[in-house]
């Protein structure tokens, strides 16, 4: 199991990387959208996009367009057994969020930057549908 073959990494390892990549993408996107805002306001806005519910919803929207390899990564991520679900997320929602993060981690580690950008942009757009205007 090496980073040169990310599909061989454990799903929770992919999710660990994917969580950081998704969080950074959302933070950068928010700064580009809203200019100079207080860090506390940016943090509160970011949590609406990176919370388990938003990630699970993004995954549901992406499912029909996943490649077979991506679908396998998502399945493995959904079936992984994390230590515990965070506050405010039920088990199924958290499993779907972990699957989304595993997909993002896989795309990042496999160097599929265009596909990664497309997935993250779609996730932000999908999560943003329910957000108030900034």
TrEMBL record:
GO terms for molecular function: ribonuclease III activity; rRNA binding. The keyword Nucleotidyltransferase does not apply. SMART domains: RIBOc (SM00535). InterPro entries: Mini3_fam, RNase_III_dom, RNase_III_sf. It is found in: Cytoplasm. GO terms for biological process: rRNA processing. Residues 4-129 form the RNase III domain. Its cofactor is Mg(2+). The active site is at 19. Its main location: cytoplasm. PANTHER family: MINI-RIBONUCLEASE 3. This is Mini-ribonuclease 3. It comes from Caldinitratiruptor microaerophilus. The lineage of its organism: Bacteria, Bacillati, Bacillota, Clostridia, Eubacteriales.
């Amino acid at each position: 199991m090496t980073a040169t073959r990310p599909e061989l990494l454990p799903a929770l390892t992919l999710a660990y990387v994917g969580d950081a990549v998704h969080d950074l993408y959302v933070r950068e996107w928010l700064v580009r959208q809203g200019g100079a805002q207080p860090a506390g306001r940016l943090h509160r806005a970011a949590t609406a996009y990176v919370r388990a519910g938003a990630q699970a919803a993004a995954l549901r929207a992406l499912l029909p367009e996943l490649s077979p390899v991506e679908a396998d990564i998502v399945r493995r991520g959904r079936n992984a057994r994390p230590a515990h679900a965070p506050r405010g997320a039920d088990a199924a929602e958290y499993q779907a969020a972990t699957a989304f993060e595993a997909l993002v981690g896989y795309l990042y580690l496999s160097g599929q930057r265009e596909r990664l950008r497309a997935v993250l942009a779609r996730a932000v757009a999908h999560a943003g549908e329910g957000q108030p205007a900034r």
